[in-house]
């Protein structure tokens, strides 16, 4: 098995890490926006002028060739968005002033400036800033595309922790774009998109339930599609990590406090769990698994899939007004211990054409073991 870890592909993003470390003494400006403006529900001419002055002071530094100055400028521009009392009216007025500057930066050849602009677009999390992130999905540089996907996750985080400036419709559009990257992007992009969909599922604001449910549905269907396209003999470790993280995000969805996915989305997540177990079983049958001592990622992946299936089934039973008293399977333990006979028997009972998942949830008979 080829084993390039996802983290090894992050080297092109070293500049992005630098953008998080600034030296405030490197820049003389000290302008800031008063907290009363940031929390105000009414933005008039004086407030807009204060916002414009702040942007005029700090936005030029984003175009610098000095990474330290870029970082300092970005931090100063981010600061008004970090408190707990950021009003929607302020966020939108701030975006009116800042988005034109970010648009210009994204057209430059300065990678540090482009990444800083994307970071700020995600922190703004408004109807006018999100299109900048969407446009970066088509960048020729995979590192920029990866970073843009992460900015969608940041936008969801902002919407979850503050009064959101994103509409449910725009959020659904973002979710669909992320679903495409889970299904068709590189392993690096797919892993970032899985995490971003997890962020969308966590949106707890009123009006977002449809977008959340679509995020859960696409997490299950698109990650499952990706797993089903794998060839057991040529999978690299980065793909296994995508599958593992997708299962973990799915489990978080069905075990969350309060809102949980509907039955159709839950079925997709159960199917994803079955797909992940199926690729592990295929690797086992084809002798593509590493020796017992080197199976750590495979074992983690199988356990994540088992947990997803167990908790999703319990949630599905609750939605039906029933009770699921099944005990969780222990395929990960069997794989780790090298108990091949028991692993094979229990996997067939769960995944076979007449197995528990096919029989209970109506999956196609050959979905898991006749790929």
Characteristic terms for this protein:
single chain; 371 residues; mainly alpha; disordered N terminus
Report what the structure shows.
- The protein is mainly α.
- Helix content is 64%, strand content 0%.
- The chain contains 17 helices and no strands.
- It has helices at 14-18, 35-38, 45-58, 67-78, 88-106, 111-124, 130-136, 142-161, 168-184, 187-201, 209-228, 237-255, 263-285, 296-319, 331-337, 340-351, 356-361.
- Helix 7 (130-136) runs antiparallel to helix 8 (142-161) and helix 11 runs parallel beside helix 13 (263-285).
- It is elongated.
- Residues 1-5, 7-19 and 21-28 have low confidence and may be disordered.
Roughly what fraction of the amino acids lie in strands? under 5%
- Alpha-carbon distance between the two ends: 20 Å
Unreliable segments of 5+ consecutive residues: 1-5, 7-19, 21-28
Mean pLDDT: 91
Number of strands: 0
Task: Compute the number of helices.
Answer: 17
Supply the helix-strand structural class: mainly alpha
Helix proportion range:
55-70%
Largest sheet: none
Cα-atom radius of gyration: 23 Å
- The SSE string, one letter per element, is HHHHHHHHHHHHHHHHH
Shape: elongated
């Amino acid at each position: 098995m080829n084993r390039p870890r996802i983290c090894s592909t992050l080297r092109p993003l070293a500049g992005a890490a630098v953008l998080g470390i600034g030296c405030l003494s490197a820049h003389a400006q000290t302008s800031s926006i008063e907290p009363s403006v940031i929390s105000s529900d009414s933005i008039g001419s004086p407030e807009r002028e204060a916002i414009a002055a702040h942007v005029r002071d700090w936005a030029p530094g984003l175009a610098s060739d000095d990474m330290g100055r870029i970082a300092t400028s970005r931090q100063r521009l981010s600061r008004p968005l970090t408190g707990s009392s950021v009003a929607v009216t302020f966020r939108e007025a701030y975006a009116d002033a800042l988005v034109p500057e970010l648009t210009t930066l994204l057209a430059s050849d300065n990678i540090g400036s482009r990444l800083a602009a994307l970071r700020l677009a995600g922190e703004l999390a408004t109807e006018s800033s999100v299109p900048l992130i969407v446009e970066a999905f088509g960048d020729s540089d995979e590192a920029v595309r990866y970073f843009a996907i992460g900015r969608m996750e940041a936008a969801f985080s902002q919407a979850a922790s503050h009064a959101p400036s994103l509409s449910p419709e725009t959020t659904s559009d973002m979710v669909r774009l992320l679903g495409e990257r889970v299904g068709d992007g590189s392993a690096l992009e797919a892993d970032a998109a899985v995490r971003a969909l997890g962020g969308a599922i966590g949106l707890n604001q009123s009006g977002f339930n449809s977008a959340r449910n679509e995020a859960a549905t696409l997490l299950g269907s698109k990650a499952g599609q990706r797993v089903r396209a794998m060839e057991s003999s040529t999978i690299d470790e980065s793909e296994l990590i995508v599958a593992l993280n997708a299962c973990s995000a799915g489990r978080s969805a069905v075990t969350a406090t309060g809102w949980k996915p509907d039955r159709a989305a839950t079925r997709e997540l159960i199917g994803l769990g079955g797909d992940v177990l199926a690729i592990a079983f295929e690797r086992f049958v084809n002798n593509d698994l590493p020796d017992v001592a080197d199976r750590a990622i495979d074992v983690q992946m199988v356990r994540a899939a088992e947990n997803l299936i167990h908790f999703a089934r319990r949630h599905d039973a609750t939605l039906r007004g029933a009770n699921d008293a099944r005990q969780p399977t222990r395929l990960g333990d069997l794989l780790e211990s090298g108990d091949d006979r028991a692993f094979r028997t229990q996997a067939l009972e769960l995944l076979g054409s007449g197995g528990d998942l096919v029989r209970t949830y109506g999956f196609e008979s050959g979905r898991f073991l006749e790929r």
